[in-house]
Amino acid sequence: MSATAQYMREVMELARKGRALASPNPMVGAVIVRDGNVVGRGFHTYAGVQHAEIIALAQAKGQANGATMYLNLEPCSHQGRTPPCADALIAAGIKKIVAAIGDPNRLVSGEGFAKLRAAGIEVEMATDFAAEAEKLNEPFLHFMRRSRPLVTLKAAITLDGKISAPDDNRGWITSERARAHVQELRHDHDAILTGIGTVLADDCLLTDRTGLARSRPLLRIVMDSQLRLPLESKMVRSTAGDLLVVTTTAGNPERRKALETRGVQVLTIDGPGGRADLQGLVEWLARQRYLSLMIEAGAKMNWTALESGLVDRVYFYYGPKILGGLEALPLAGGIGRRRRVDAIRVHKVAVHPIPPDEFAVEGYLDVHGDH
């Protein structure tokens, strides 16, 4: 392994320490090397305020002068909660920057690199780490490019594509190991959504049960056009400022007041067909700077999400079971696509084995025509 690869590998590991702690900012790791020795390290968390570069400079002290800094993302060049990192690197006398990717944030977008080059600092792109750096900060980068959260549709399904049985849904489709993987996926998201039908059927919690720290709670969202969410449901009883119900103007005002009294936030967004509007919710989440949304719902909600064009990624967990029958619910209900040629296409498909007999399929929807 080359020296550059070794330091970039450490940068990636440092950045990952900001997992679920950096949002709505990106995860960033920084390593400062002088004369072949690491003299400073840093990673960013939102609560810590300071960016990875500044933490690494503070650790390096005077040894940053003439040193090389390795990063997974372009240094910021604008005044935000903190002064521009590019200015601090110039002031510290950094000689060279090695970075994996640029920052698509319109307030940065090449300006950080340009400012460094103008000050005589060499900028080198570690292209071998570009794909990993993109995946690491996928929600942030998507948000900056699309101005809305990355939306993932997750489901646990049988080998024949069913998500629930017609008579009795006790038990699980997937194993405890697969469900633990789902919790890790939840941990990587800012918000999670389901429909009222799923809540009424399962009395689910939809919490992040990894036990790992987060910069802010996982926002639990219920699409509930008629405000049928039971006041004694597990979701309402467990709310701690982390439950949002999206309803319509048809929602009962007294019911709304009762939910709000219990600490539930109620948002009215009228959509087509008298239903709460998913598009409007995603736009609201964008304004609140939620970078990612995971949908864990039933067949009807799944199809609504897919047909809306809002789903960017799918993550399907397959259990080694077959239900069969025409009454067991499929992954997505609704009218569906009536012709094979109109099927929703999935690209960049990856299969993640979950030994001994399960697997997850991850893929991206061609909603923007650029996958």
Quick structural gist:
The protein is α/β, with parallel strands linked by helices.
Q: Would you write up a description of this structure?
A:
With 371 residues, this protein is an alpha/beta fold. It contains twelve helices and 16 strands. The chain has helices at residues 3-16, 52-60, 85-92, 111-118, 130-136, 138-146, 176-187, 196-202, 234-237, 253-261, 278-287, 299-308, and strands at residues 29-34, 37-43, 68-73, 96-101, 122-125, 150-158, 162-164, 191-195, 219-223, 243-247, 265-268, 292-295, 313-319, 329-330, 346-354, 358-365. A nine-stranded mixed sheet has the order 11-10-9-8-12-6-13-16-15, sandwiched between helices. It has a five-stranded mixed sheet with strand order 2-1-3-4-5, sandwiched between helices. Strands 7-14 form a two-stranded antiparallel ribbon. Strand 10 (243-247), helix 10 and strand 11 form a beta-alpha-beta unit. 41% of the residues are buried. The mean pLDDT is 94.
